[in-house]
Design a protein that fits this description.
The complex is a heterodimer of chains A (255) and B (147). In chain A, the strands form three sheets. In chain A, strands 4-5-8-6-7 form a five-stranded antiparallel beta sheet. In chain A, strands 9-10-11-12 form a four-stranded antiparallel beta sheet, sandwiched between helices. Chain A has a three-stranded parallel beta sheet with strand order 1-3-2, with helices on one face. Chain A folds into three domains: 45 residues, no CATH class; 103 residues, Uridine Diphospho-n-acetylenolpyruvylglucosamine Reductase, domain 3 (2-Layer Sandwich), CATH 3.30.465; 91 residues, CO dehydrogenase flavoprotein, C-terminal domain (Enolase-like, domain 1). The longest helix of chain A has 17 residues. By secondary structure, chain A is α+β, with helices and mostly antiparallel strands. In chain A, β4 and β5 form a beta hairpin. Helices cover 35% and strands 25% of the residues of chain A. In chain A, α9 runs antiparallel to α10 and α10 packs antiparallel against α11. Chain B has a five-stranded mixed beta sheet with strand order 2-1-5-3-4, covered by helices on one side. Chain B is α+β, with helices and mostly antiparallel strands. Chain B folds into two domains: 72 residues, Beta-grasp domain (Ubiquitin-like (UB roll), Roll); 72 residues, [2Fe-2S]-binding domain (DNA polymerase, domain 1, Orthogonal Bundle). The chains are: A alpha+beta (255), B alpha+beta (147). Chains A and B meet through β1 and α5 of A and β4 and α3 of B. The complex binds flavin-adenine dinucleotide and FE2/S2 (inorganic) cluster (2 copies).
């Protein structure tokens, strides 16, 4: 558990980011589920409660998710269920209802966890993140950029993308041994593997081949050539490479 | 100083800045709330906050300020009925997981209409049990949902 010098409940996003950036030991707290397991000395702990970041809204061409929306809300929200049921499913695989009522999407994406079930879905849809200090970026760009003290306050997912998602877990509640998200729009296909165990990877050649109508076998071969897989306690790189084809086949057949 | 309404009773209490709700509730005498893994995995510490089941081991008490909380002490009648079904069906063996399982099952009964076995298993996925194999728990929960 961390220690805290002071707890701040800002009334605006501006105030929150100013507080966060006023000292290098300051942290924001989302659901607090992950932060709790870290042994650090926090200066100011900044709450995101009461900033109105817990809403999901839609416009004609996009869905907007506030950074403090809980994972359970994403799972059950009618807008998400209508436009991105696969995102709801992906989130529903994480631990349990009681944990998902606490954990938040802003923290989940900002932390760029390699095991994430959420980030591959967002990359596959071509989603963007809005950061209070650094501005707006595609999720893909955000994954590789230098991060400064910041607050992820909104995620924007373009409509018109059909998202599918699958994963393999050794047991319920565990991290994925591998997961796969595929986004299809009128002009492109995006094939994204996560929990490799490294973070989300957009398979560009395989995506382009799928977009050109190549066969499952051809696309699978490209995936195995271009996607780096690693070994950890959950699975070996070799097993993950095999599994990559199995998950792709599942989603391909589900079309 | 924070204000918590626990099982309908208003409490005002000082908390440490890094204190979690589990510790505050136990300090205030709500000993049905049990400490398990403390890493968000087991579900033993489940309480309802604003009617939603959450892990009290992971929620900062300061973030619960002004909220309404329900522990097992606040749902004694429902817990008694569910407890009897769990005992009859062999769904409680060492009993370690039972307080958290009961709280989440009660939350599920309020939230889901006519759930299938699969929906029940999914809702209760965050409540680990080392003894029952879950099948006897499911039988007991099915009976409880029919009451
Ligand atoms: C036991 C366990 C199992 C898990 N399994 C999975 C899994 O299988 N798949 C999966 O995808 N995820 C999994 N997760 C991660 C989970 O989904 C959340 O991503 C994680 O708990 C962080 O969310 P939180 O709201 O609790 O963040 P917190 O603990 O509040 O914060 C985590 C970090 O993010 C920072 N932060 C918080 N909010 C913001 C924000 N809006 N902007 C910028 N920084 C912020 C905090 O300062 C902190 O550094 C698991 C977590 C746990 C504890
Ligand atoms: S004690 Fe809270 S989840 Fe285990
Ligand atoms: S009855 Fe022993 S852990 Fe569930």
């Amino acid at each position: 558990m961390y220690t805290v010098r002071s707890y701040v409940r800002p009334e605006s996003l501006n105030e929150a980011i100013t507080e966060l950036r006023s000292g290098k030991h300051n942290r924001v707290v989302g659901g607090g589920v992950f932060l709790k397991m870290q042994h650090r000395a926090i200066g100011k702990l900044i709450s995101l409660d009461g900033l109105g970041l817990d809403q999901i809204t839609e416009t004609e061409d996009s869905v907007h998710i506030g950074g403090a929306v809980s994972l359970r809300e994403i799972e059950t929200n009618p807008i998400i269920l209508e436009h991105f049921p696969a995102l709801s499913y992906a989130v529903s695989q994480i631990v349990g209802v009681q944990m998902r009522n606490l954990a938040q999407i802003g923290a989940s994406v900002f932390s760029r966890y390699g095991f994430s079930d959420i980030i591959p879905c967002l990359v596959a849809t071509g989603a963007k993140v809005k950061l209070a200090h650094a501005g707006e970026f595609s999720v893909e760009a955000f994954l590789t950029m230098d991060r400064d003290w910041d607050i992820l306050y909104e995620i924007i997912i373009p409509k018109g993308v059909t998202l599918s998602y699958d994963n393999l877990r050794q047991t319920n509640g565990d991290f994925s041994s591998l997961n796969l998200a595929i986004g299809k729009s009128s002009d492109q296909v995006r094939i994204v593997y996560g929990a490799r165990p490294m973070g989300a990877f957009l398979a560009e050649q395989a995506s382009a081949a799928a977009g050109q109508g190549k066969t499952l076998e051809q696309v699978t071969q490209l995936v195995k050539q271009e996607v780096p897989f690693g070994t950890n306690l959950r699975a070996s790189a070799k097993y993950r490479r095999h599994l990559a084809g199995v998950l792709l086949e599942h989603l391909w057949e589900a079309e | 100083m924070i204000t918590l309404t626990i099982n309908g009773k208003v409490h005002q209490t000082e908390v440490e800045l890094n204190e979690v709700l589990l510790d505050t509730l136990r300090r205030l005498g709500y000993k049905s709330v049990k400490r398990g893994c403390e890493t968000a995995n087991c579900g033993l510490c489940t309480v309802l906050v604003e009617d939603k089941p959450v892990l009290s081991c992971s929620l900062l008490s300061l973030r619960a300020d002004g909220k309404s909380i329900v522990t097992l002490e606040g749902v004694r009648d429902e817990a008694k009925i569910l407890g009897e079904f769990l005992a009859q069906e062999g769904g409680e063996q060492c009993g370690y997981c039972t307080p958290g399982l009961m709280m989440n099952t009660i939350a599920m009964k309020r939230e889901l209409v006519d759930p299938t076995d699969e929906e029940i298993a999914h809702y209760l996925m965050g409540n680990l049990c080392r003894c029952s194999g879950y099948v006897s728990q499911l039988r007991a929960i099915r009976k409880y949902l029919e009451v």
